[in-house]
């Protein structure tokens, strides 16, 4: 059984003219456990909406999303939140760190939505991403690359089976982008998590053995998106 199995997934929004605008229309997609797959997603391909549907941040209009054998599409928002907290790690392009909390506290807060805070494991993760000396630093006291490393540690904090990454190197320079991508992939392997990454950067995509075009998976991508 695939770790992630999607079928006939659709999501639409109300258009300004009063009609309906389809953003995601994915007939079929599968991801195996511990696999690492990149989706090539240009602007307008529905990449963020697609990942947010998988993460349970958004509810689909129709279709099926099975994660680790559990159907997510019909769950209430609170139930989807619980699944995300225990099974999915998400690395956002803008990192989404809480600015008033230290690196360690950001990871511990991520844990609090799942099985509970594990201070030693949080420290272990931050050490793994090279931030052992920055545990008590606030995000504003960290470089952009270091903030992303905190985001990687937080995404792995609850030992997820699936890590989603939405343009995770988009805010980094060339050197940091390559190093960060290597870190993300290695950390997922070490923790037994599958990785589904979306990017439009050819150098990022070139590091993956398995690359699929989201524009081909998503039949709605042919429509202009706002």
Question: What can you tell me about this protein's structure?
Answer:
This protein is an alpha/beta fold. Helix 5 packs parallel to helix 6. Helices cover 34% and strands 24% of the residues.
Biggest sheet layout? 5 strands, parallel
Rg from Cα: 17 Å
* Beta content: 15-25%
What is the terminal separation in angstroms? 36 Å
What key attributes describe this structure?
single chain; 226 residues; alpha/beta; Rossmann fold; five-stranded parallel sheet; four-stranded antiparallel sheet; 8 helices; 9 strands; 24% strand
Topology, element by element:
Blueprint: E1 4-14, E2 20-31, E3 36-40, H1 47-55, E4 62-67, E5 70-71, H2 77-87, E6 88-91, H3 103-112, H4 119-128, H5 144-155, E7 162-166, H6 174-190, E8 194-199, H7 202-205, E9 211-213, H8 214-217
Parallel strand pairs: 3-8, 3-9, 6-7, 7-8
Antiparallel strand pairs: 1-2, 1-4, 4-5
Helix pairs in contact: 3-4, 3-5, 4-5, 5-6
Summarize this, please?
By secondary structure, this protein is α/β, with parallel strands linked by helices.
């Amino acid at each position: 059984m695939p770790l992630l199995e999607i079928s006939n997934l659709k999501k639409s929004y109300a258009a300004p003219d009063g009609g309906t605008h389809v953003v995601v229309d994915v007939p079929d997609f599968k991801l195996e456990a511990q696999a690492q797959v990149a989706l090539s997603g240009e602007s307008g391909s529905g990449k963020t909406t697609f990942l947010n549907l998988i993460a349970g941040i958004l509810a689909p209009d129709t279709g099926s999303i099975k994660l680790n054998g559990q159907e997510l599409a019909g769950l209430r928002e609170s139930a989807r939140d619980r699944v995300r907290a225990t099974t999915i790690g998400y690395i956002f392009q803008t990192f989404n760190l809480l600015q008033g909390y230290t690196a360690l506290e950001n990871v511990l807060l991520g844990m609090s939505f799942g099985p509970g805070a594990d201070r030693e494991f949080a420290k272990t993760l931050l050490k793994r991403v090279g931030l052992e000396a920055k545990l008590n630093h606030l995000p504003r006291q960290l470089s952009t690359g270091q903030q992303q490393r905190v985001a990687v540690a937080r995404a792995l904090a609850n030992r997820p089976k699936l890590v989603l990454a939405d343009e995770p190197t988009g805010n980094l320079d060339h050197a940091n982008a390559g190093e960060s991508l290597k870190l993300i992939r290695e950390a997922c392997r070490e923790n037994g998590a599958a990785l589904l990454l979306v990017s439009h950067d050819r150098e990022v995509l070139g590091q993956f053995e398995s690359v699929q075009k989201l524009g081909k998976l998503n039949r709605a991508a042919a429509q202009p998106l706002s």
